[in-house]
Design brief:
The chain is mainly alpha-helical. Helices cover about 70% and strands about 0% of the residues. About 10% of the residues are buried.
């Protein structure tokens, strides 16, 4: 039986906070597609994209091996990877909530 621990509450709180900030920022962002339009080589949007990619790589470097120890198969790992690259921090934070509820297998 899964038990909700202090770790679960921490990750769940962080996930809810992140979602709230994302919704607030998205509502006030205006034209969301302007971020992806042609930008100069050294623009702030390139920094944001690089930050996203590095964060995804670091998160996946932890998540993929950890998911294997918790019984997630190859298909699940591929889904985690694709969703992380597509949805950003939502997936690693959701994974950490799930991880805190599911103990590692031997």
């Amino acid at each position: 039986m899964n038990r909700i621990t202090a770790q679960t509450w921490f990750w769940l709180g962080l996930l809810v906070f992140w979602l709230a900030v994302t919704v607030a920022v998205s509502r006030n962002a205006g034209d969301m597609m302007a971020f992806f339009s042609a930008q100069p080589l050294l623009s702030w949007s390139n920094q944001v994209i690089m930050d996203f990619v590095l964060t995804a790589v670091v998160a996946l470097a932890f998540i993929i091996p950890d998911a294997g120890r918790r019984g997630v198969g190859v298909i699940g790992k591929v889904i985690l990877t694709v969703l992380t690259l597509g949805l950003g921090a939502l997936v690693p934070l959701g994974y950490m909530v799930w991880r805190s509820l599911k103990p590692a297998t031997a």
